[in-house]
Each structure stands twice: as C-alpha cells, then as structure tokens.
C-alpha cells in the first residue's frame, strides 16, 4: 500500500544514482558466482536503476476518493493484511504484491475452476511478466532519527505474538539464499517438475455441506498436536509445525480431513486457517487462505458427486494418496504415528 502526504513539494533536486549505490548481496549462501553475475547483468540491462524502470501503472489500484498522485508527494509504504481497512484522508493506492497479474486485472469475478482463469492469466503475461530492475540504495535518509541507542532485544520482547512457534532452521533467508534455491531448482529439479510436482516425497462458488454424523471428531488441540488415527495426516501436520510449510497436494488432503473430522464446516475452516496462519510461511497470505477455502468450501472448484459429510465438495482419501505417491516414505520422513481414537 502507498499513502501520499501532499502538504508541500520538496525543494531539493533528485540525487544522481551512482554505480556504487547498487545494493550488494551478502556472501553467506552457497551460490555460483557465474549465476549471480548473469542475473545482475541482466537486471542492469533492464534499466539503469529502479527509478528509471518503466513501471506498468495498471499494477496500482486507487483505493481512496482522491484520484491524483502528486509527483512531489512524499510516499509512505506499508503492508496491509486482510481484515484491515484503508483510511481515506489522503491518496491511497494498492499494489498486488502476491500475483504477477494483479487480481483486479486477471478477472472481474470469482472463478470456479483453474481452467476458467488459466487463459485469462496467460493472455496477460506478456504485459505483466516483466524483468526486475536493479535495486539501489535509497537516495535520501529518513527525517526521523533515533535519539538513543535502540534496545532491539527489548523491542522484540515487547511483541505480543505467539512465541511458541520458533524460527525454521531448515530455511535460510536473504537474497543469496533465495538465489541459491533458484539455481538449484533450475539446474537440478525443474526437469522433474512436470511429472513429480504432486509427489510430496520429492523436493520440489461455495457448495452446501451435508450435516452427517462424523466417524471421527477431533478437537483443535488434538489436530494441532497431530494426534489423529491417520499417520499420513499427522505427518503432514508435523511437516507444517516443524518446517513452516506443507506440500500443496497434501495441504488439500490435510484441510479436507479437518472438514471430515470437525463438527461443522465453519469449525473446519476456522481451524484450518488458525493452523495455517500460526505455522505456515504463507500464513495470513492469499495463497494459504484460498488453499483452505478451496479444500473446505469448494471456492474456485466445481461441484462433485454428493457424498456424506462433504456434500458436493471434492473428496480425497488415504487410498487416493497411495496411488499418487509413496505414502510410507513421506510418513517415515516426518514420523507421524497412528494414535488410537477415543470416541467422543
């Protein structure tokens, strides 16, 4: 989101960007020098700097009553998550930071299947799938200065967040770590993507429900602690809590079983979103939210043959997973166990 304070124009001239202003990535991650040099050269050929990059203004959507973006206005950039509202006192524009093609450009309605939206997105890729310009150091320093040394440990301690969820040791952050992952994918794994993308052992409109009696019912805490009778589901939940991610195919199975094992669809959706938001790297993110909605509510999916509990929502089961991938290997990797079910 961008908010503009248009009190008065600045008087100083724009600073000329020098080659030394380009941000240099750290040297902590394992990545070949040729790969990073190729990327840097390609990005610099796109534009002299990010300030010279030809930005597609369709990526921005005006959210405020004020429609004009003053050239001399001072901008404030901040993140906005779902359930947060935009104040309308000044010019405010939204940027879709999650999608290559902005969602308001891709489609003007709720799509009910991948096949109905795929062509809409693909037809717009030539316009929006653009190169990244080089990153530069900001030419101006901020007006606000810290008068005293900041106690970052105290600042972190003051955060009112769930501290039971620790950092994920297996995932390295930073520019070079991301490029190392990209290089590994391009050189080693992309050839397997088409045939193995739905195999979690490889690294790589809302429909109505039927209020049938559930064979199994679990509380939120039992689900969170992976204490179900299903060792595959438990392994997927362990992957989520330990690695902050879950394979896409298994997240469908995971969420659909929550629907099957809770009293109501509302409880199922609430529980799935709670667990995803708490543990997943894409928590509080559209992809995670819609993933739960697709699995439990049938959003962006078609209706299927009606069955107990699921109604017309797409069904998934353990046997189907065994036909897709090596279930035993996945369970062995994450250690999910079969827990005896106590009828409630």
From TrEMBL:
Keywords: DNA damage, DNA repair, DNA-binding, FAD, Flavoprotein, Lyase. Gene3D superfamilies: 1.25.40.80, DNA Cyclobutane Dipyrimidine Photolyase, subunit A, domain 3 (1.10.579.10). PROSITE patterns: DNA_PHOTOLYASES_2_2 (PS01084). The keyword Lyase applies. It is an enzyme of class 4 (lyase). It catalyses: cyclobutadipyrimidine (in DNA) = 2 pyrimidine residues (in DNA). Its EC number is 4.1.99.3. GO terms for molecular function: deoxyribodipyrimidine photo-lyase activity; DNA binding. Its cofactor is FAD. Residues 1-31 are annotated as: Disordered. It comes from the Eukaryota. InterPro entries: Crypto/Photolyase_FAD-like_sf (IPR036134), Crypto/Photolyase_N_sf (IPR036155), DNA_photolyase_2_CS (IPR032673), Photolyase_Class-2 (IPR052219). Belongs to the DNA photolyase class-2 family. This is Deoxyribodipyrimidine photo-lyase. The gene is LOC103515334.
């Amino acid at each position: 989101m961008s908010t503009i304070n248009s009190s008065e124009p600045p008087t100083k001239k724009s600073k000329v960007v020098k080659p030394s202003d380009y941000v240099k990535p750290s040297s902590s991650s394992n990545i070949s020098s040729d790969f990073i040099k190729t990327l840097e050269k390609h990005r610099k050929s796109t534009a002299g700097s990010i300030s010279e990059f030809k930005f597609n203004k369709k990526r921005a959507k005006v959210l405020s009553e004020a429609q004009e973006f003053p050239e001399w206005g001072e901008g404030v950039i901040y993140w906005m998550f779902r359930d947060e509202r935009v104040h309308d006192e000044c010019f405010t524009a939204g940027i879709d930071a999650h999608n290559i093609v902005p969602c308001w450009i891709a489609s003007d309605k709720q799509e009910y299947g991948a096949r109905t939206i795929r062509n809409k997105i693909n037809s717009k890729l030539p316009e929006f799938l653009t190169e990244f310009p080089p990153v530069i150091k900001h030419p101006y320093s901020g007006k606000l200065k810290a008068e005293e040394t900041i106690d970052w440990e105290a600042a972190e301690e003051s955060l009112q967040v769930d501290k039971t969820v620790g950092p994920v040791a297996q995932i390295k952050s930073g520019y070079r770590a991301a490029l190392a992952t990209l290089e590994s994918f391009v050189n080693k794994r992309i050839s397997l993507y088409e045939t193995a993308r739905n195999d979690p052992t490889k690294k790589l409109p809302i429909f109505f429900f039927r209020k049938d009696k559930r064979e199994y019912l679990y509380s939120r805490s039992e689900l969170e602690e992976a204490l179900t009778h299903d060792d595959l589901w438990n392994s997927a939940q362990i992957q989520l809590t330990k690695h902050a991610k879950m394979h896409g195919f298994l997240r469908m199975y995971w969420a659909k079983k929550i629907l099957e094992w809770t009293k109501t669809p509302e409880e199922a959706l609430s529980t799935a979103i709670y667990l995803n938001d708490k543990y997943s790297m894409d928590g509080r993110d559209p992809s995670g939210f819609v993933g739960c909605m697709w699995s439990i509510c049938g959003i962006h999916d078609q209706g299927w043959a009606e069955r107990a509990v699921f109604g017309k929502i797409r069904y998934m089961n353990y046997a189907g997973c065994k036909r897709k991938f090596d279930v035993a290997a996945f369970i062995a990797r994450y250690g999910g166990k079969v827990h005896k079910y106590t009828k409630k």
